[in-house]
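the two lines:
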Amino acid sequence: MAITRRQFCRAGFAAAACAGLGSAAHLAAQPAERVVRVTAKKFEFLPHELTLKRGVPVVLELVTADVLMGFNAPDFGVRADLLPGKVAQARIVPQQVGTFEFLCDIFCGQGHEEMSGKIIVVA
Amino acid sequence: MNEINRRDFLKLTGVGGAVFMSGLSGCTAVGTKAAEQDFYFVQLSDTHWGFEGAPNPDARGTLQKAVVAVNSLVAQPDFIMFTGDLTHTTDDPKERRKRLAEFSRIVKELKNPNVHFMPGEHDASLDWGEAWKESFGQTHYTFDHKGVHFIAIDNVSDPAARIGDTQLAWLKDDLGKQDKDARIVVFTHRPLFDLYPQWDWATRDGAKAMELLMPYRNVTVFYGHIHQEHHHMIGHIAHHSAKSLIFPLPAAGSTPKRTPIAWDPAQPYKGLGFRRVDAKPPAQYAITELPVNKA
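prediction for all of em together
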């Protein structure tokens, strides 16, 4: 890994995760921000690769299509519980070009350990 | 991290070699009384009974070979500890119980009946440890042996990898009965620190357990989960992970994905093994990594 989580935090990565608190009103207040929906299902994330632009804020809408899942992108300080029927949101502002992993961090079944994806940040 | 001690660790680390580690620098004197309390135990981990796949063509025979290897130790250990992932996970509760039962039958062949078990997430995370408890009892517990207080902490029954407030309160209560100089060994499955959260090598509330342990001067942690030997200091507390008995995993972040290291037909069982831990007062642990099969 090219950069540690601590370095990320020092670099000022703004991140917040709020499970189940997403609302249309909240999104409407920030129309300029790109919204990307990520769906977790046994045993994959769709999409499993997210390409983001450095410096451009993104709101992730995180949902599960079946059981309780977790979304964790440690390099961005973002994690959320994905409860069935709820939408979790996480806002990130990527500032470092590179490829970073995210994963399901709630053991959800026999394919759980394959359940990961990548955030690719481009200039 | 205590960089001096870590450097010492790295200097001393070697496959098949003895690594002498102390949780308290400068304490090397071993008197007659202390020598009476010397003993050793064996740690086995991540046997993943039920796994099938190319990373271990002998998945149905590796555990048995480890049992033979432990039984062939010239002097038997005082006890044997399995630090989790006894079985490979399955969504089928019946199959889970079948694997746990098969595992139990195999390890009953150990000469030494003094065996302790704890679960890994593969055993326990899909049913909060229900099936595991049917076979092995409590998932967190303590025992004392020759002056050392052993604490098994369950950081896997919660699928979110939390120890949880109830168990943390239990830990606090147990530690409250110990002298600050007590010899304490902690067993866990997952690391109690953020070794590499990108690969789920962490415990969500591990820092809370470390906060409770930190006032105690002679604490050492042994764990599994990451399928390789790893040594790490947090303050004065050493953390030692064990090899697996099914397949090795790459070093944290060294490959794009956490995929098992491929089986090498020229060197079968490479990267697999178990360890002997020689305990000497006050808190020194000589670790000797041992292979699954005799060379």
